[in-house]
């Protein structure tokens, strides 16, 4: 009975209605999934189970699993059209469309979408099996014959069979001609061969296998070379396009440039494109874009066009321009309807809405400006992802006026080829080659005096063979001097006299010419820096004389170590401090000036428990430890020591003898051969290379390993981190002669090069980072000094003169951008960078075969490891002045450096004024250490004796220095604040009337770098759009009590400024005010950007508080309290992780950057006779080392140490003159200060010793207003000798010495009060 009941139940279920109105809320769908027997997924280990089958309604709106008997149900389904899909592993089911009629309740229709077959019952069966893997095709002979290899083999067999018959039928004359062609031309070109000749070559290739291989190889090589040549031509063509673009932009043809960009497709100007988008010029947007991509190129291009047209459509709707919106929909958006009909239908429905924001997806639609900005951000991402735009978004770095210079060089080359080149060529046209036409009435005479002249060379006119007192020469890019026949007897007598550019502005420089046999005064003698021309086998050459002051020829100091030195490095800021590591693991810090070791540390492991077991085992087996490398960080705040076993120790340096342990890293297995500091992404890291063949990058602050670079097959020998075009990378070399280049990405080496001779190599860049050099020695003792071609990856120039059997790796170093120095064969060898021949040699005495050498940053001091644990300090002329050693003469006073070493005559009783007399004596006296020490002691005594002070340079007339006036007297208000842009190409001033003045230097032929200089007048910059000047809002402020302040962001893009009122954030490109915040009171009195985050600023207020403000979120992060008066000075130090503040209360505070807590505070130290004036502003500025800072008060200048706030040096005016403002030079070697009495003073920052006075009579004319004085001062960020002052009458004056490369107190002045900058008796 139970069985009958069960059967009846099954019968009811099988005949249950397909659809029913289960409730008033909707319909119920009942169905069944049925898999007939015989169906089964092939290739599966287990058959599919019903419990794994899913039924999906409306694309995932509802999902259910079937029961074991295959049935399923969906409840509460609304009327309308619905789609049912079945997901079962191994089967394909047709989707089913189900329609519930809303008008006729109970009317239901169902149909399969695959074949549109209607269903009376919802029983779903699979249509076919689903195969997920491609079935392997069986072996076939035909597929083998149809393959490329089979076709090639078949062709060769056919040729081998038919070619003999074709050759036999060839005409004998044709056969002979082909044979002669092969013998005469070697490998002929396929394009130039006749069919018969081509078949003949193929026949020869088939008949002779060996020769055929060579033949085929030759052809492939020829084709490969042709392809490479084609690629090079294509690359050169592209570069030519960029040169034309640069020319158009430089000349102001902006529209032409953008049309050229669009037509050539070589460069996509994102700035121009953004300007079009933000201004809603949609037709121009699509027109410019069409030059690079079309709608159907790829998905990114389609998305770009759709987003542009969609926003154009929405803007038309928002402006109630329905006719335009309809036109955009039909013409522009219709093309996207095929891909997404539903979206197009929704956009069509928007036409029916009165306000497009009524649509739920457009409820957040903002105004046009905001929507365009959002669109532009999206377009930037799409364009950067689009492969079509790869390589087209960045304009290459090209020197200014490059195309013009190339034309100049071409004209110079054409001028060289002229038969009779004239000294003043007349260039009339560029359409034809230049040819000098000699005047018809000129008498030609052949010179017979010059016996060295080659008879095959063209005869020059006699006028060119003369040597006039003044003359001209064509100069452009590469100097070419056209002069008379200069022989070995009169070489150096004729100098190039004037310069004239073939294109652009013309200028002339004249100089006095010397004649043999005449006496010349020292004032008229030839400078070492002037070029000399010579004739070598009839060809003109340019000879650059060697400047004696540039080479370290004099042994100035000898330092004695207790053990053998192994590595050295000069401090980058305090350049007389030398860090030394030894072979017993000791390190020492020497003051080279005094010859005293300031600090000595013996090797010890700081935390043996944290070291690896391998290191502990190694140190137990052999406790000896030596230093492989010592190195300073770029700012001198850290130094690292790499040891011969495993570890690296990092120290923090705070000046003087304040050295603290920072980190100890168990870095490598085995020795650590090299370490170097770098700042990729503004993060301080140390890079190490070891015997374990690895390169590792560590965070200097935390010691966390950031990167592990693997790829060398031998121990790493040296490291060179570098940055070029904002790309940070690392060069590394290994002992097997391999050179690799790495990015900071753990993705392996990007460049693999073999060093010349597979030598163990070190690498270095020139001072301007434009030239790369390497020097090394291989296992056979051969040494190689080369200059690299970075673009090609090969040696550009190999220098001659190194020893061929060196016992160790030769060490080298560049001297600025002129010379190379290498220590080889017990001497110091020197090369001119531009010449491969060995230039000269310096013998310092008692040097090992290959000593270690190290220059200081300015290349004025050279440290050389000598025998018997000594370190010799060699100095240039300026280096001797740095060491306070007076040079009285040389053995040989000629302008050339001879091969013999130079010796100095040290005479403590003679002054610099007598040095010329010592030169004439040529006394061959050796420079002993005792003599130097005696001189040094006398100098120290003279400095300490107040009655015998060093002479201070007095500049009192305009002729004693170079200066440039910006603005007219009386045209503007007082200059309250002054600053250079970080790029060094402009000066920004804030006047007392709250107006900003931006003076910008142009980039042109006289000023190719576009930097600030006194020789080129700048322009008062104003926005082209006609926007007003940047002016602060002074509403609610009192001008008499206001303290103006401003600060620039690191990239010169943003300016924060206040003049007693609200703080304004300006865009420096458009001069527009972007943001205003914090109206008074209290008012802002000082501002400073956080050095690592432009969004964070420190604001000093006149209520004695300091606010840490986030500009992005417009929120105060922290409020610092401690001062008792208005805050007038703020300065950040990332090395010390502090903010230093100063105020009118004469107090200095330091604040921790992590939690903004107060660290220390100290009151300024005033001498007993000085009574501080209440309310005087106090300003602070950090030294380049980020450890010391300058404090400026109207009564004093002070140098403080940031950690303990100790006053290191102090200067107080002897008279009652008040200081108005002061600043460090860009290299922190000098301090520039201006005074209320009109004087400008220059100090040595090492000890705040006054070196130079610039009196107001030298720069303020008599026509100026009374009581005019410099109120603000700023130093150039790249030129250490340039600074500017802002006067109280609104004038800005830029100062430079006559020789920009010299220091202010090392330059020569004609005034009797400034005849020398050295100490006199």
TrEMBL record:
Residue ranges occupied by any CTLH domain in the UniProt entry: 267-324
Signal peptide: 1-22
Coiled coil: 326-385
WD repeats: 665-708, 810-841, 1120-1154
Keywords: Coiled coil, Repeat, Signal, WD repeat
Annotated Pfam families: EMC7_beta-sandw, TPR1-like_2nd, WD40, zf_topless
Presence of the UniProt keyword Signal in the record: yes
Repeat among keywords: yes
InterPro entries: Beta_sandwich_EMC7, Carb-bd-like_fold, CTLH_C, LisH, Topless_fam, Topless_Znf, TPR1-like_2nd, WD40/YVTN_repeat-like_dom_sf
Entry-linked PANTHER family: TOPLESS-LIKE PROTEIN, TOPLESS-RELATED PROTEIN 1-RELATED
Protein name, UniProt field: CTLH domain-containing protein
């Amino acid at each position: 009975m139970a069985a009958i009941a069960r059967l009846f139940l099954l019968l009811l279920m099988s005949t249950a209605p397909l659809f029913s109105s289960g409730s008033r809320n909707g319909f119920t769908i009942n169905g069944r999934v049925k898999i007939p027997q015989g169906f089964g997924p092939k290739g599966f280990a287990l058959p599919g189970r019903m419990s794994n089958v899913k039924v999906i309604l409306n694309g995932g709106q509802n999902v259910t699993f079937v029961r074991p008997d295959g049935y399923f149900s969906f409840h509460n389904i609304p009327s309308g059209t619905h789609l049912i899909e079945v997901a079962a592993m191994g089967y394909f089911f047709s989707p089913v469309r189900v329609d519930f009629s809303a008008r006729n309740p109970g009317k239901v229709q169902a149909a399969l979408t695959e074949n549109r077959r209607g269903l009376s019952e919802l029983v779903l069966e699979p249509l076919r099996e689903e195969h997920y893997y491609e079935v392997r095709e069986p072996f076939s002979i035909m597929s083998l014959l149809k393959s490329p290899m089979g076709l090639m083999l078949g062709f060769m067999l056919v040729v081998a069979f038919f070619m003999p018959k074709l050759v036999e039928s060839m005409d004998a004359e044709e056969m002979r001609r082909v044979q002669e062609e092969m013998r005469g031309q070697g490998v002929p070109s396929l394009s130039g061969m006749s069919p018969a000749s081509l078949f003949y070559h193929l026949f020869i290739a088939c008949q002779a296998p060996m020769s055929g291989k060579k033949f085929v190889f030759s052809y492939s090589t020829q084709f490969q070379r042709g392809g490479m040549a084609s690629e090079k031509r294509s690359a050169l063509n592209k570069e030519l396009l960029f040169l034309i673009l640069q020319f158009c932009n430089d000349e102001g043809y902006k529209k032409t440039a953008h049309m050229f960009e669009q037509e050539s497709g070589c460069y996509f100007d994102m700035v121009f494109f953004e300007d079009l988008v933000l201004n809603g010029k949609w037709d121009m947007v699509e027109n410019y874009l069409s030059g690079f991509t079309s709608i159907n190129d790829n998905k990114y291009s389609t998305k770009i066009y759709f987003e542009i047209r969609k926003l154009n459509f929405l803007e038309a709707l928002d402006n109630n321009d329905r006719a335009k919106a309809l036109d955009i929909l039909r013409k522009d958006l219709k093309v996207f309807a095929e891909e997404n009909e539903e979206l197009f239908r929704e956009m069509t429905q928007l036409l029916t809405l009165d306000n497009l924001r009524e649509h739920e997806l457009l409820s957040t639609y903002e105004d046009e400006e905001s929507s365009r900005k959002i669109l532009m951000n999206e377009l930037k991402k799409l364009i950067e992802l689009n492969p079509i735009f790869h390589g087209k978004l960045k304009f290459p770095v090209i020197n200014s006026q490059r195309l013009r210079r190339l034309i100049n060089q071409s004209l110079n080359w054409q001028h060289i080829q002229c038969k009779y080149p004239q000294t003043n060529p007349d260039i009339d046209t560029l359409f034809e080659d230049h040819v000098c036409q000699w005047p018809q009435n000129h008498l030609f005479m052949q010179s017979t005096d010059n016996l060295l002249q080659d008879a095959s060379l063209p005869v020059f006119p006699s006028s060119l063979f003369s040597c006039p007192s003044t003359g001209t020469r064509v100069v452009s890019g590469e100097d070419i001097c056209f002069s008379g026949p200069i022989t070995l007897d009169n070489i150096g007598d004729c100098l190039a006299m004037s310069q004239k550019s073939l294109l652009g502005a013309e200028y002339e420089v004249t100089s006095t010419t010397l004649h043999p046999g005449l006496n010349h005064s020292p004032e008229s003698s030839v400078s070492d820096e002037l070029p000399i021309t010579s004739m070598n086998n009839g060809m003109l050459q340019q000879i650059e004389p060697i400047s004696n002051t540039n080479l370290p020829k004099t042994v100035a100091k000898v330092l004695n170590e207790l053990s053998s030195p192994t590595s050295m490095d000069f401090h980058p800021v305090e350049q007389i401090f030398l860090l030394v590591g030894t072979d017993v693991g000791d390190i020492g810090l020497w003051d080279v000036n005094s010859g005293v070791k300031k600090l000595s540390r013996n090797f010890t492991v700081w935390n043996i428990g944290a070291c690896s077991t391998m290191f502990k085992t190694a140190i137990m087996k052999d406790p000896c430890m030596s230093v492989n490398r010592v190195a300073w960080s770029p700012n001198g705040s850290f130094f690292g020591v790499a040891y011969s076993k495993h570890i690296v120790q990092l120290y923090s340096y705070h000046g003087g003898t304040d050295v603290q342990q920072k980190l100890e890293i168990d870095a490598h297995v085995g020795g650590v051969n090299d370490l170097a500091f770098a700042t990729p992404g503004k993060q301080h890291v140390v890079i190490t290379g070891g015997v374990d063949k690895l390169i590792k990058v560590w965070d200097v602050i935390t010691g966390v390993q950031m990167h592990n670079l693997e790829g060398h097959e031998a121990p790493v020998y040296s490291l060179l981190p570098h940055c070029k075009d904002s790309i940070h990378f690392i060069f590394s070399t290994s002992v097997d002669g391999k050179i690799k280049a790495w990015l900071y990405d753990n993705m392996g080496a990007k460049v693999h090069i073999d060093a010349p001779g597979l030598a163990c190599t070190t690498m270095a860049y020139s001072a301007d980072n434009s030239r790369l050099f390497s020097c090394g020695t291989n296992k056979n003792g051969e040494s190689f000094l080369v200059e690299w071609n970075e673009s090609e990856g090969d040696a550009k120039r190999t220098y001659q003169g190194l020893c061929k059997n060196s016992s160790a790796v030769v060490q080298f170093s560049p001297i600025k951008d002129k010379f190379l120095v290498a220590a080889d064969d017990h001497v110091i060898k020197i090369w001119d960078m531009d010449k491969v021949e060995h230039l000269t040699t310096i013998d310092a005495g008692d040097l090992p075969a290959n000593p270690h050498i190290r220059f200081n940053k300015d290349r004025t001091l050279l440290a050389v490891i000598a025998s018997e644990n000594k370190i010799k300090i060699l100095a240039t002329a300026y280096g001797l002045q740095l060491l306070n050693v007076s040079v009285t003469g040389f053995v040989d006073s000629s302008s050339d450096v001879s091969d013999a070493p130079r010796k100095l005559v040290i005479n403590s009783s003679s002054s610099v004024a007598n040095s010329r007399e010592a030169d004439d004596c040529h006394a061959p006296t050796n420079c002993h250490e005792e003599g130097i020490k005696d001189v040094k002691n006398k100098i120290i005594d003279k400095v300490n004796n107040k009655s015998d002070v060093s002479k201070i340079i007095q500049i009192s007339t305009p002729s004693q220095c170079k200066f440039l006036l910006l603005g007219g007297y009386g045209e503007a208000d007082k200059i309250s604040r002054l600053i250079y842009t970080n790029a060094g190409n402009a000066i920004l001033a804030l006047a007392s009337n709250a107006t900003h003045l931006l003076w910008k230097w142009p980039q042109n032929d006289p000023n190719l770098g576009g930097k600030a200089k006194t020789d080129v007048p700048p322009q008062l910059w104003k926005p082209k759009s006609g926007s007003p000047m940047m002016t602060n809002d002074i509403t609610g402020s009192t001008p008499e009590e206001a303290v103006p302040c401003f600060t620039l962001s690191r990239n010169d893009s943003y300016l924060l400024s206040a003049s007693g009122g609200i703080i304004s954030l300006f865009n420096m490109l458009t001069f527009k005010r972007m943001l205003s915040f914090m109206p008074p009171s209290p008012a802002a009195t000082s501002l400073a950007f956080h050095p690592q985050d432009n969004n964070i600023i420190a604001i000093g207020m006149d209520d004695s508080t300091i606010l840490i403000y986030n500009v992005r979120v417009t929120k105060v992060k922290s409020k610092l309290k401690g001062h008792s008066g208005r805050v007038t000075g703020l300065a950040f130090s990332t090395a010390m992780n502090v903010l230093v503040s100063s105020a009118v209360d004469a107090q200095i505070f330091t604040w921790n950057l992590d939690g903004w807590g107060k660290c220390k505070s100290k009151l300024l130290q005033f001498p007993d006779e000085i009574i501080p004036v209440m309310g005087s502003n106090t300003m602070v500025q950090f030294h380049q080392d980020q450890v010391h800072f300058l404090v400026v008060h109207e009564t004093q200048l002070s140098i403080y140490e940031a950690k303990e706030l100790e006053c290191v040096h102090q200067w107080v005016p002897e008279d009652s003159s008040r200081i108005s403002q002061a600043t460090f030079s860009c290299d922190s070697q000098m301090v520039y200060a201006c005074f209320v009495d009109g004087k400008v003073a220059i100090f040595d920052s090492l000890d705040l010793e006054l070196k130079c006075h610039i009196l107001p009579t030298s720069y303020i004319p008599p026509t100026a207003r009374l009581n005019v004085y410099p109120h603000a001062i700023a130093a150039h960020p790249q030129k250490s000798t340039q600074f500017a002052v802002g006067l109280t009458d609104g004038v800005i004056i830029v100062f430079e010495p006559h020789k920009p490369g010299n220091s202010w107190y090392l330059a020569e002045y004609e005034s009797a009060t400034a005849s020398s900058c050295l100490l006199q008796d």
